[in-house]
Structures are given as structure tokens and as C-alpha cells.
UniProtKB/TrEMBL annotation:
Pfam families linked to this entry: Fer2_BFD (PF04324), Pyr_redox_2 (PF07992)
Swiss-Prot/TrEMBL keywords: FAD, Flavoprotein
Cofactor(s) the protein needs: FAD
Species of provenance: Streptosporangium jomthongense
PANTHER family linked: NITRITE REDUCTASE [NAD(P)H], PYRIDINE NUCLEOTIDE-DISULFIDE OXIDOREDUCTASE DOMAIN-CONTAINING
Domain (FAD/NAD(P)-binding): residue spans on this chain: 5-287
Top-level taxon of the source organism: Bacteria
The protein's name: FAD-dependent oxidoreductase
Protein's UniProt keywords contain Metal-binding: no
UniProt KW Oxidoreductase keyword: no
Cited InterPro entries: BFD-like_2Fe2S-bd_dom, BFD-like_2Fe2S-bd_dom_sf, FAD-bd_OxRdtase, FAD/NAD-bd_sf, FAD/NAD-binding_dom
Residue intervals of the BFD-like [2Fe-2S]-binding domain: 425-471
Alphabetized SUPFAM superfamilies for the sequence: FAD/NAD(P)-binding domain (SSF51905)
Amino acid sequence: MSPRRVVVVGYGMAGARLAELVRERDPRGELVELTVVGAESRPAYNRVLLPGVLDGTMTADGIALHGREWARDNRVRLLLGAVAVRLDRAARVVHLADGPPIGYDALVLATGSRPWLPPVGGLTGERGEPARGVATLRGLDDCARIAAVTGPGVPVAVLGGGVLGVETALALGRRGAGVTLIHPAPHLMERHLDPTAGMILARLCHTAGVRVVTGLTAVRHYPDEGVKLEDGAFVPAALTVVTTGVRPETDLAVAAGLGSAEGVPVDDRLRTADPYVHAVGDCARTGDAPSGLLRPAWDQAAVLADLLTGAGPTARYRASPPVTRLRAGDVDLTVFGASHLGLDSREAEVLGYADPARGTYAKLTLDGDRVTGAIVLGLPGVGATLTQLYDTGWPAPADRLALLLGRTPPPAVDDDPARLPGSTVICRCNSVTKDDLTRAARATGGGVTALVRATRASTGCGDCLPKVRRLADPHETTGTPT
Ligand SMILES: Cc1cc2nc3c(=O)[nH]c(=O)nc-3n(C[C@H](O)[C@H](O)[C@H](O)COP(=O)(O)OP(=O)(O)OC[C@H]3O[C@@H](n4cnc5c(N)ncnc54)[C@H](O)[C@@H]3O)c2cc1C
């Protein structure tokens, strides 16, 4: 039987992961003939780490997910700089902007999302593209464009104080730029944080040299001059970086009658309304689950790889609750679950601790002994412990105060990683679970260096390296991965 022709449109984080997992299940290409079509001109890379490239602590090569030889070594037909422009579902053919059409037995849309620009005067050109003096941050080309303009002392405005806006502002601040972060809501990251945490985060930004303006909307952008706010104030800026959210990239799907601007609806097998077309990652819409995050994209890729190769015919996608992590310089924030509940909540037990002068804040919600939500700012150890309790469902210790203040020893991961469920995320920067590491250990024969190479775990902020070491080899205590 000839292999099934699978074409993946989009070589970003979801498409790259899917291709890897298909080849992991079908290394010789006997089951699946794989073609990946990617609009970008370089091998896939970890977008989550772009702020590190922006502030100069990481390089473009350092965040690459694949080397130049990856496709050849893995029997993948990879078309870089290739844009899919039309999907003929009746003929099961995808047309490219340049080059012959490609036939498929199964097509996977992994087209991601694109930055959304708000309707502020002067921000966009005629076709909706960023106007002169305006940038967005989605890819390495954006980083290069922003870096070319922003040096020490250069005034920069960042519009949008969500997670990406705060990370971007802090990264530009570390480049030495004079950054003003403008956010229309009363406090930063209002979808994740309560007002106290938002206030402390703004203080931390201020300490890091970023000026924060909240509660005011930008009303007009003037190229080379800056941004006018609704109260008439003017923020000088040689560059305005817009981080006001993303929208699923669905043009190809919509033109083919699949999905809408909100995303491409898929079932738990990641199938669209057309059984020959699937969607994964930011462009896919799975029920009410939040999109625009890496973990769901990679979980979906794993399920689809099982289904496309037949390795796991019963695999189904179930959304897992997201954990938001922001680590930029001295700012360390973890948020998840029912973080919006106040101390007076009747829905759950809520505990809080705030030390604004020292930039620390911890709020914890519990249902019985289960951790159901948290906001942790400036206390990385507490954030890690609570996340682990949340991910594993392990009962919280009875001494809640000690837990909140970080005086409880972390759950036994460092001593006994075998106890952790496989789905526990060990490396948040690269979204690597214990299962990923265990699989890689089996494939590579173990050893921390091999594991890091195989999974890229610990190549982001590096916080998880001790855990990766323990999982790589319970006896290994030294050795620097390269
Ligand atoms: C700066 C930054 C920081 C982030 N931080 C976090 C974080 O901390 N945690 C988190 O969970 N998520 C984070 N994200 C979001 C995360 O990167 C995305 O959820 C993830 O990249 C989704 O993967 P994807 O493959 O669906 O989309 P993408 O990675 O965007 O890949 C889509 C690819 O498809 C290509 N493409 C689109 N249309 C076509 C076409 N017609 N033909 C060919 N190719 C096409 C695009 O060029 C792109 O290369 C961050 C994103 C950014 C930009």
C-alpha cells in the first residue's frame, strides 16, 4: 500500500511539532508521505522565546526548533517561503502562490495567527498593514525590524499591556530604549491579574525602566513622532510596537468554506467540517478552549500524529487548563485557574499576601485541598510549587501560610520524578512534558545533553534544568548541556 499523502500548511510551532511526531511514529515514511508548506523562509523556531531575541539574550539560531538538515534527515518534503493560496477541496489539491499544486489525502491547516491592530488613526496603511513607524511582534523578521530601530535612549511606545505587551516592553527596556507601555484598562494584564497584582506589576515595570500608562487609549499614531492619547497627552516614539492581541490566520480556510475569522472549528479528532482537512494550533477552534497558546497547539499535534499514522486510532484532543508564565529580567509571574476570585469570595477558599514595596504578591484559591488558581509575582519558588500542585492535582499542605510564603518544600519532583504524572509540564518555555522527556530518554538512551538536544527542554529560561537532569538520569548531578 502506498503511503498516505499528508500536507501540512504552516511550518510554525504546531506544524513543526506535528511533522516531528508523525516521523517519530513513522520514521521510514512507510505510512505517511509528508509535505510541509511554510510561508517563512527559515526553519521553524520557538516564538515564545522571541522577547529573548529582542533583548539580545538569545539568538535566532538559539531558538530554532529544527536545523537546516532536519527535513532531509526525516524524509519530509519541506517548502520554505511557500504560501498556500487556495484550497480545492473537491480535487483535494492545495495551490501555492508559486510552484505546482500539491495533491493530498489529508490536509492539515497549521496557519497560526496574526497580530491584530486596533482601529487607531494612523496605525495601519491602506491594506491594513502596519503603517510606517509601527511594528508588531510575531516572528524573527519582526524582531530584526524592531531591533534595527530601537537602541539605547530611543523612545518607543508599546500599545497593549497584556502578557505579550509587558514582555515586549521589558525586553525593549533591557535594550536600553525609553519605553512607554500604554494600556487602556485600569491595570496591566487585567484578563489575568487582579488590581493589586496589576499595580505591583506596573511598579516592577517602572523599576525596570518602563513607564506605564494605564486607563488611557491611544487615539492617533504619528510616524516618527509618537502617539497621542485620549486625554490629549503625547507619548514621543520613534517606533510604536502594537501588542493588542492576535486573530487566527484563517484566510485560506474561509475561502474554502471552512471556518470564520474566529477560527476553524474542529472536533476532538481535529477534523474540520471536511473529513480530509484538519486544523491544529492557533488557527483551530476547539469548543470554548482558549486559543493562541502553545500547549494546546502541541497537544493537538500529538493527537493528530497518532490519528494520521494510525499509531493511536482512539486518540482524542481534550483541552488542558492553561498556565500563564511571564519571566522577563527580574519580573517573574505565574497565573492560572480561578485567579480572579477576591479574598471575600464564597466560591472558594482564597488566601492572599502582598508586599508591593518588594514587588511580591501571592494569591491562592483552593477547593478543599485542591489548588484551583493562583497569581504569584516575584516568588518563583512559590509559583513553581503551586503550578505543580495544580497540574498534578496533588493535595495542598495543611499549612496554607507556609505554602503561600514558599516555606513548604516543593512536591517531591526533584527527589522522585517518577511520581509525577506524564502530562506534567517540566519546561514551560518549550512546553515539554514529563512524557516528552521520558520518550526522548528512551529514544536517545538518556543523559541530560541528549535529552536537551532532543526536546529543547531548559533552553529557554533554564529554570527547569535541575528537573530535566533528574528525569534524564536520576544519578546525574553534573554536566552542562550544549
Ligand atoms: C512573542 C510571542 C510570545 C509568546 N509567548 C507565549 C507563551 O509564553 N506561552 C504560550 O503558550 N504561547 C505564547 N505565544 C503564542 C505561541 O507562540 C503560539 O500559540 C504558537 O506559536 C502557535 O503555533 P501555530 O503553529 O499555530 O502558529 P505559528 O507558530 O504562528 O505558525 C504558523 C505558521 O504558518 C505560516 N502560514 C500562515 N499562513 C500560511 C499559508 N497560507 N501558507 C504557508 N504558511 C502559512 C506562518 O507563516 C507561520 O510560520 C507567544 C507568541 C509570541 C509571538
